């Protein structure tokens, strides 16, 4: 899995190769300006999704809040206006997909989990159209578990072919003979969770060289000086008595070793050791989130070169430190983490520690910058749900994801723990984490032959872009690049878009304010039967390499599963109408051409049986002329006091039709006619007037289009579903005999604290006793992110 640093290395390597290698220092110090130009041309987005919980049963709603931020500053970014969310199964097959509008980097929505879904572990992933230009490793992903209690639950048998995984990671990249290296390691069980272990390193003659043990989350490290290039091996003993034997990485006769040590005086010492490069220069390059931080040169003396780095010169978060040799070849790399101070301190308290059933819960929320004395306004999402053997507190948060998880590879256990304090235990564990999850072995042949990402996908900064491709039935056929295309979404409001094909036959329609599922119609002016038009999949077809853990349920979870299933069925039975209410978006229903010159309601006039009679009898702005044996519509131009020489844009329920189709249409099905007599420019198109006919239901009743027209159902943006939470303000409401078995008491994706950082929310408990957790996550406009959770009890009446 490749992360953003590999794109950085690509630019750096290309720059170094293009310069004169005899001017090594000058070349290297010229990199920051080149790097700055690259950064300015590549805007990155990073996305986090807060879900109401992580365990669901089929028939429930999965609620989510999206935070989209700038990939460098972590501030909410208003570049993309659409987010794509998917639920993928273990084979990366999408089982649910949706598009959600974003406003200033925020959006929210829901998935209704169908009763047809299969029990298992799934991935929830999210991205923007612009993010599709990069690796799928940049997409947001999180695991969720869904159980279908309405089907016979068959948990797959444990896969006995999967064993414990052990991996070793030399600091900097490689082991070199006679040079001491720090070697990190990790051992995980079949589910991918780190486990404790002890071990020994043996030589090729089975002599014990050293012993080691894991420190935290199955990770640890030891210092190792290989005496030969013969492979050493590790013998690892687990807590259950099992023994694993595995070779350490290969040892090289010559090379470079890198070692990073934190000094007590606020500096970092990076030592580069190489016995094969006496008196040769080496270069250290440090970058953080696509921003150059440090570029320094030292000379290897007596086999060692030392860099002292002032930690204040490094940005907060994960930095990549790379060492280059005198030929400007990367020879070592490692990561360093500087705990962020850009933290939003979130706090909340309830009006009681315990509650009865159907009682009011009031939360007082406060947000402020960490270590500050005054509040800071922020936008939060809040979830309150019951804790049991199935539902636990999510160890991930928007803070830990942005600053840590998204910068590393693989699954990170309890990432928030690394952001708690600065004590020595956390520092050592964090260093092990960076060596294990940030380590990569160089594949520079791939990097040298690669180029900057080709930006095939444009940012959707206005609305959703429907992407089409003209394809030839004959691969040798030549496409007419001047092909014009029109897309219509019949109905009210009128939605009509036009575009032209590129040289590659790509057609883009920038569709705005299209919500829900409807029928779209796409037409082109290309009559050649050797071509056909396809609407391309708007969702990404690139996938991450991460593998979901095997699905399993413990026997002790059966009671919790039964209670959650009953709660789902009760809610869907008694409150189906309340959980299926949506907020209609505020959409401008004015036609794209604005106010028409003249409007005709045909029922106000004598109804004729042909469209030609209608236009001739009482629509003076439109004339019918015969050319080449066919009838044409012409719109009157008041400026020239004559009719336009070319045909107008003719629409029927927003669908472009030609003269013959329009004049052959039954006027008794038409309710309204609007005429625009001015010239109208829409993109690259210049229309000599517009004539728009609207039927009674806006559904093009009985309209027959050209056989080459593409007509298909297409899902637009998701309509926002309203979260249902019953209110028990009065005794009469509280004494209702309708059962209330909700385990999710509250979900609010848009809590805004005021200028003092304060906000209040309230909700009511259900009939379900137990321990509940309130989880708050959010971010402010300056990019300060934070989270908080606390628990309370519902003890019953």
TrEMBL record:
It comes from the Bacteria. This is Macroglobulin domain-containing protein.
């Amino acid at each position: 899995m490749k992360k953003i640093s590999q794109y950085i290395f690509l630019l750096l390597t290309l720059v170094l190769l293009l310069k004169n290698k005899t001017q090594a220092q000058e070349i290297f110090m010229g990199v920051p300006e080149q790097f700055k130009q690259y950064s300015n041309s590549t805007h990155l987005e990073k996305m986090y999704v807060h879900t109401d919980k992580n365990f669901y049963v089929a028939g429930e709603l999965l609620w989510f809040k999206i935070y989209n931020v700038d990939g460098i500053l972590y501030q909410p970014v208003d570049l993309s206006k659409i987010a794509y969310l998917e639920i993928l199964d273990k084979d990366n097959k999408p089982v649910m997909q949706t598009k959600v509008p974003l406003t200033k980097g925020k959006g929210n929505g829901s998935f209704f989990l169908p009763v047809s879904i299969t029990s298992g572990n799934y991935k929830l992933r999210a991205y923007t159209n612009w993010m599709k230009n990069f690796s799928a490793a940049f997409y947001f992903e999180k695991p969720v578990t869904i159980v279908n209690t309405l089907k016979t639950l068959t948990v797959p048998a444990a896969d006995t072919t999967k064993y414990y995984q052990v991996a070793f990671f030399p600091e900097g990249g490689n082991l070199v003979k006679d040079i001491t290296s720090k070697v990190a390691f990790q051992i995980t069980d079949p589910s991918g969770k780190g486990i404790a272990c002890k071990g020994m390193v043996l030589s090729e003659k089975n002599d014990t060289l050293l012993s080691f043990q894991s420190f935290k989350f199955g990770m640890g490290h030891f210092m190792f000086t290989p005496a030969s290039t013969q492979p050493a091996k590790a013998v690892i003993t687990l807590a259950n008595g099992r023994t694993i034997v595995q070779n350490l990485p290969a040892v090289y006769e010559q090379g470079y070793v890198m070692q990073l040590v934190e000094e007590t005086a606020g500096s970092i010492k990076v030592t580069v050791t190489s016995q094969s490069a006496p008196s040769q220069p080496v270069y250290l390059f440090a970058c953080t989130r696509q921003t150059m931080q440090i570029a320094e040169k030292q000379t290897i003396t007596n086999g060692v070169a030392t860099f002292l780095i002032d930690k204040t010169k490094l940005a907060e978060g994960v930095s990549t430190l790379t060492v280059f040799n005198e030929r400007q070849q990367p020879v070592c790399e490692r990561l360093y983490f500087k705990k962020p101070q850009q933290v939003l301190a979130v706090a909340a308290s309830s009006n009681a520690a315990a509650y009865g059933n159907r009682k009011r819960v009031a939360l007082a929320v406060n947000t402020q910058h960490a270590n500050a004395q005054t509040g800071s306004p922020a936008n939060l999402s809040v979830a309150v749900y019951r804790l049991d053997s199935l539902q636990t507190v999510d160890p991930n948060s928007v803070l830990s994801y942005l600053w840590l998880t998204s910068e590393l590879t693989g699954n990170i256990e309890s990432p928030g723990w690394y952001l708690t304090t600065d004590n020595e235990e956390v520092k050592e564990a964090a260093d092990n984490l960076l060596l294990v999850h940030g380590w990569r072995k160089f594949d520079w042949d791939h990097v040298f032959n690669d180029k900057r990402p080709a930006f095939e996908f444009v940012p959707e900064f206005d609305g959703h872009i429907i992407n089409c491709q003209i394809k030839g039935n004959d691969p040798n056929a030549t496409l007419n690049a001047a092909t014009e295309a029109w897309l219509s979404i019949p109905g009210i409001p009128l939605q009509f878009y036009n575009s032209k094909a590129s040289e590659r036959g790509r057609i883009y329609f920038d569709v705005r304010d299209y919500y829900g599922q409807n029928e779209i119609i796409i037409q082109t002016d290309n009559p050649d039967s050797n071509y056909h038009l396809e609407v391309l999949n708007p969702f990404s077809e690139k996938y991450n390499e991460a593998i979901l853990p095997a699905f399993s349920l413990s026997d002790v979870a059966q009671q919790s599963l039964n209670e959650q299933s009953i709660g789902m069925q009760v809610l869907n039975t008694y409150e189906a109408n309340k959980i299926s209410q949506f907020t209609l978006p505020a959409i401008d229903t004015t036609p794209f051409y604005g106010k028409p010159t003249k409007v005709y309601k045909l029922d106000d006039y004598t109804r004729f049986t042909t469209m030609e009679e209608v236009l001739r009898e009482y629509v003076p702005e439109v004339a019918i002329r015969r050319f080449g044996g066919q009838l044409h519509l012409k719109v009157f131009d008041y400026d020239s006091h004559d009719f336009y020489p070319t045909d107008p844009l003719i629409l029927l329920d927003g669908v472009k039709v030609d003269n013959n189709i329009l004049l052959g249409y039954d006027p008794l099905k038409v309710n309204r006619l609007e005429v625009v007599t001015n010239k109208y420019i829409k993109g690259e198109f210049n229309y000599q007037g517009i004539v728009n006919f609207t039927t009674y239901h806006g559904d093009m009743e009985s309209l027959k289009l050209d056989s080459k027209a593409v007509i298909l159902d297409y899902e637009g943006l998701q309509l926002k579903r309203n979260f249902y939470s019953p209110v028990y303000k009065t005794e009469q409401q509280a004494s209702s005999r309708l059962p209330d078995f909700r385990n999710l008491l509250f979900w609010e994706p848009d809590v805004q604290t005021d200028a003092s950082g304060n906000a209040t929310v309230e909700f009511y408990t259900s009939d379900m006793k137990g321990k509940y957790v309130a989880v708050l996550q959010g971010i402010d406009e300056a990019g300060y992110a934070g989270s908080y959770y606390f628990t309370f009890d519902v003890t019953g009446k």
